[in-house]
Amino acid sequence: MSRSKRLLPGGQLVAEGRAAAPAPAPPTAFLRAHGARSEVEYKRRQRDSGVVMYHMHVGLSTWAATEAAVAEVYTALAAEGHMVDRFGLALDRAMGVPEDERHLTVKETGPRIGPDEWARLGEAAPVQPHLGDYMIGFPAGFQNTVRALAAGVSTIGNVGQYTAYDLLGGSDEIFVTEETVRALAAIAALRDHGAMAHSNLEDGSGTQATHFGSYVGWAALELYVVEELIGGRLAHCFGNTIQNPEHRAVVHFALDDLRGRDSIGSMIYGNTVDHRAGERARNTAAVTAQLMCDIALQLRRPTGHAVNPVPLSEAERIPSPSEIVEVHLLAREIEREVRKAPNLYDWERLERLGAMTAEYAIEFRNRALAELADDGVDVRDPAQVLLALRRTTMAELEQRVDLHAPAEVAQLEPWKASHVRRLVDQLREDAPRLDGMRVVLAVLEVHDLVRDALARVLPTAGAEVILLGSNTPIDGVIRAAAEEDAEAIVIGVYNGNALAVGERLVAAARTDGWEGRIYMGGILNQDAGDALPIDARPGLAALGVHCVDRVEDLIALLAKSRTM
């Protein structure tokens, strides 16, 4: 489909998407095993029976290795008398690139699904597949969605990534918007057969909110577009960055209230931000607290979400099958303990807070749509609404909506807002002077907490910061450093591509004659074609790239470089 320069009408895009939807797929191995016509039917059955469902996330280097891992986990849990209901794929970012262009991209961690592999997704084991990352919201979103639906994958995301993620080097936002509407319409066409769109709120603009009232308000906006304008079913996922169990409960209840307390969710993601590499005791404590809360919530007010136990090695690398099995066995023991005392929390207070948050969110949505209408956006056109939301930030939207939250809701501060504030205060306290130093700051993916903190701290230390967006191409980072006469580049990278990015940065620096220092942070590993990625630090050091594991060390390293 040709890429258009002017946004096509939403009605036309919806019609095209619905027309392209495949025939309902035959039941997957999971649905056959459980005698269900769709995952939605199965989820509703389990929800109404008080059964806690479980989700695992997996993504080794290739689909063949990932397929084997799913089967291994299923078999190991079955031997212990347990089952896992669904698996989500941690895909390579290149899946967001159209299939015929994918071979031109840098390989990252996670599998790429080839044309002949889609049909195997639902047959890897009696575990229902879920496709979230790098599907909807990217240039290949419509293509991927049609293939996934035909393969029996009925829960497809990630709507949240549409507004917050991009490919390396960027993409045509008009084309991406059109493909997103078509994809959502294809899912809507199969709603009666159990298809639903998925959105992880932690991956979208909602996670930038100053409190959970506007966070859930963003969810209400997504619901409006997907369900009211396009006619689909939207399942919200949350939890990656929600540390506080009470906050998890409030979001759970609020999202359920938005749906009239008749939710069919995808999964509640585990708290990943409290995990630390190599700190097994800490990670076990974080997993235990999260699972106790999420399991208790499913017993108190079941929503059809599967619970996601986070492997203890999550902060270090892509977990192996045995590590996934380990944490799932732990989860089943925790469930047994929670069932002994389900009233672990002050449910009455938390449900009241959830209702207040949902009420605020609905008014936030209504005011946001009114603001868009004032800007000339046709708020009955899903394509126009999506594009307008993509072009604004959460901070801008909160400012324009200007809706005072009740004190109890305003105090519900998301992790990113509170953590950036604390990190800024911590870094400023001991920061050495960097007067006149020019630094290019770039994060080539959306996990931008450290970038946001450094963008506030470095100028107070006297540095001049050139801040680049996550869609900046690698050679563009070097070009900016050369044009701005920068002494250093600070760059954050995504899981599985650190060495490849380092090589391209160094090559571009040589070409442009830039001789400054490169500091790299993030998950510093590299996909080498094996099941698990390798440590990229030795290779980066050989290139002359300085690896930084802790943001606290970076400013000292920048200061030290001026004396060398």
UniProtKB/TrEMBL annotation:
One function term, GO molecular function aspect: metal ion binding
Where's the B12-binding domain? 434-564
Under what name is this protein listed? Answer: Unannotated protein
Region Disordered, residue ranges? 1-25
Q: Per the UniProt entry, what species is this protein from, by scientific name?
A: freshwater metagenome
Supply the InterPro entries for this chain. Answer: Cobalamin-bd, Cobalamin-bd_sf
Q: Which PROSITE patterns match?
A: B12_BINDING
Pfam families according to UniProt: B12-binding
User: What does UniProt list as this organism's lineage?
Assistant: unclassified sequences, metagenomes, ecological metagenomes
